[in-house]
Design brief:
CATH superfamily: ABC-type transport auxiliary lipoprotein component
Number of domains: 1
Number of helices: 3
CATH class: Alpha Beta
Number of strands: 5
Shape: elongated
Helix content: 25-40%
CATH topology: Rossmann fold
CATH architecture: 3-Layer(aba) Sandwich
């Protein structure tokens, strides 16, 4: 009898502790209005995946039934290009910038809202002038997205 009561109490305690550390990634809305990623559902889906990975890296568990939820709005995406050319030597710098807003929602009520900016730089030098046609670097976009997701989680202080 005592053994079953202790087992029941331990089970309840473990499930209560587990429930406190679960988070749900809510909607990721792409509110970018200009540029190649304006309204892109693929970018929103990619951010959701990166956000889930970052949350798990911080030691939290994901659950679709969690009372704590994070919702993210992508606000800005741009690539700033800087070119310096002296004779046949050229230096190109591309800085990828992403700005996002996150809201922490607990039991359906917004508790906190933060904004973060993620950047990634690519610097290339050459002795010949070769134009790549303004192609985006997927690696740099991913790096900037990862940085902005980690900053949002840190600022929300989960």
């Amino acid at each position: 009898m005592l053994k079953s009561i202790v087992t029941l109490l331990l089970t309840l305690l473990l499930s209560f502790t587990y429930g406190q550390e679960t988070i749900q990634v809510g909607e990721v809305n792409n509110k970018i209005e200009l540029g190649p990623f304006a309204g892109s559902r693929d970018l929103a889906f990619g951010v959701q995946s990166i956000l889930e990975e970052a949350i798990q890296d911080k030691g939290y568990n994901l659950s679709y039934n969690a009372e704590t939820q994070i919702q993210v709005d992508l606000l800005f995406f741009d690539v700033q290009k800087t070119n310096v050319q002296i004779a046949v030597y050229s230096k190109n710098t591309d800085e990828y910038q992403i700005i996002a807003r996150a809201a922490l929602i607990v039991n359906g009520k917004k508790k906190k809202q933060v904004i973060a900016k993620g950047t990634a730089k690519e610097v290339s030098t050459a002795t010949l002038i070769i134009d790549e046609g303004g192609q985006f670097s997927q690696a740099n976009v991913s790096t900037a997205l990862k940085k902005v997701c980690v900053q949002l989680i840190d600022k929300l202080k989960l």
